[in-house]
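Hey, sorry to bother you again with one of my protein questions. A protein chain has come my way and I'm curious about its shape. I'm sending you its amino acid sequence along with the backbone structure tokens. I owe you a coffee for this, so here goes:
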Amino acid sequence: MTTRRGAELEVHYIALLRKLGEQKGMLGQIFTKAQNKITDPAKLFRLIDMVDSTKWVMLGADVKGDIYEGLLERNAEDTKSGAGQYFTPRALIRAMVECVRPEPCKTIADPACGTGGFFLAAHDFLTDPDHHALDKDQKAFLKHATFFGNEIVAGTRRLCLMNMFLHGIGEMTGDTLVSPADALISQPSETFDYVLANPPFGKKSSMSFTNADGEQETDDLTYNRQDFWATTSNKQLNFVQHIRTMLKTTGRAAVVVPDNVLFEGGAGETIRRKLLQTTDLHTILRLPTGIFYAQGVKANVIFFDNRAASPDPQTSKVWYYDYRTNVHHTLKQKPLTYAHLEDFVSCFNPEMPTSRL
């Protein structure tokens, strides 16, 4: 490509994008429907020249991955792009992973995985020699069989797949680890050891359609699933129900949810009662405002462990950590860092959760 200029370069670049999108596996999924947004051939050449001058082969997966993560975070900060809604603060993700402490050769899922933040944090935890010394088989399992996700927004899924590949997860020609299907449509075909998730904010699930006059309209979307405890159009409540069905009998979950999940009546009350009855919902972390790109969001993290069917309620007590009262964060002046959550992780006592402070 560096030997071409002007219109010839632009035509070649567009043809190359189309060819890459036709490839099998993760590579084809990353480039599906990719478009050239750089209309000035001179700027396109300059960009290609800059990329070509970097010795990418010499850079480790951690370096390339960190560069890409940095680009995603900067993109999330651009309010015009709307990308912030798919980006969970990395400090919060790390704290959740530190509490769950995933183990090698266990499966990890996220039904609304965005750009893959939970997968990457779990990958970093598992490859940290202070946590685990992985053997050859464990490394292979981590690369090919640990992570499973869903992301219905095509552009965000593309970013997630690229992010995972740059961090050494999956193969370019291998199976796609992130499905474009709506996770809520049906009961999961398999269950997992861990679910880490921040389902999209927005109270209602909806779908767009064209009416008889050719105008676009939206309608509330209700999922009628036999394995759900309650039928509702509340998106977060549906994700909570779905995540519980995703867990193995010994599975564990950490999920970001807005306040309405904890306090809403009707279907919300039914779902909370069932969750307390069938799982050990042992921890709630109350989060401050100002940490998400969606303004004014009041959210929490719920931690629960699945249990085998039993007539007895599985939750005996709930440990509540309030990091909202008198706590103020902003995205620019006082962003959330892992240091702000270290006390929570320490008190959570992931090594011995029954001996919490």
